[in-house]
Amino acid sequence: MEKLAIAEVVSITPIGLGARVCIDLIDELDALEGMLVGNTGNGYLSVLSENRSTATYPPRVFRLNGGAIHHYIYLGEGKTAYLSELKAGLEIPIWSNDGVRKIAIGRVKVEKRSFLRVVCRVEGTNQEVSATLQEADSVHVRTADGEAKPVLELKAGDRLFCYPDQPGRHLGEKIEEEIEEY
Asked: Can you tell me whether residue 62 is helix, strand or coil?
């Protein structure tokens, strides 16, 4: 299993409406299970399942809110896919404090929603990891202490789990190239 790292939140910025991707799986998820998504190949944040009640949403024990349609999802072993490429039947890795398991997708749902851009810096480096997440109380990320934190409550200085990576992909496969993403 790939080793996750810690990233410190640098900024959270509202950036408007866009296409949000929900991934409904064919099995139940624990509240601290999730997927790794990000804006670039520099790395990915741990976004948790919607398996909790909030002020505006009942729990969806099968759902992952992946954020913006352009996101990469980290599939493990150096591979990624765009959220826009995910289809029913594809197995994706589900990450937890205890490890990783694979679950097949039952459906993918795309809807217009408001977004926040969350920018973090991997501890001990200058590497930036970011994600464009729905501005909703149902969206939670995994903190450095292994707990869930609502995106709406994030602030600069918060510490989150991430998977640092290096950009350079062709059809989801890692390649060596000179590339700059931000």
From this structure: strand
Distance CA 90, CA 180 (A): 29
Digit-coded pLDDT (tens) for 98-129:
899 999 999 999 999 999 999 999 999 999 99
Nearest to 141 by CA among 154, 122, 126, 156: 154
pTM: predicted TM-score of the whole model, two decimal places: 0.90
Residue 33 identity: E
In whole angstroms, give the CA distance from residue 71 to residue 3.
Answer: 21
How far CA 62 is from CA of 27, 30, 102, 152, 181, in Å, comes to: 6, 9, 13, 22, 32
Structure tokens, 26: 């064919």
**Token pair belonging to 152:** 């709406």
Cβ atoms of 127 and 164 within 8 Å: the answer is: yes
